[in-house]
Amino acid sequence: MNKGNLKNVIESKGISMTFIAKKIGISRESLYNKVQGKTEFKASEIVKISSLLSLTNKEREMIFFTTDSELNSPNA
Q1: What is the pTM for the complete model shown?
Q2: Helical axes 43-52 vs 17-24, angle rounded to 10°
Q3: Rounded to a whole number, what is the distance in angstroms from the first to the last CA of the chain?
């Protein structure tokens, strides 16, 4: 998961982590753990967050299915 990209999108939309957590039905602490990569997002949570943030399919793939190291590799 690309943690930095998710944080940037959330900030750019002006949406709080607390709001997102409530909308997807988890605690704020659980959301922070997921964003930090300590636990994984469920598919249903990814769908809800993608909708809340109006993510395109490409943005969703880059955020949730690309690792930070993949983005920094010379072949990316």
Answers
A1: 0.83
A2: 130
A3: 15
| pLDDT class of 68 with cuts at 50, 70, 90 | low
Model pLDDT for residues 39-64, shown as the tens digit of each residue: 999 999 999 999 999 999 999 999 99
**Answer CATH for 3-72 from 1.20.950.20, 3.10.20.30, 1.10.260.40, 2.40.50.100:** 1.10.260.40
DSSP 12-45: HHT--HHHHHHHHTS-HHHHHHHHTTSSPPPHHH
Would you say 46 and 60 are in contact if contact means Cβ atoms under 8 Å apart?
yes
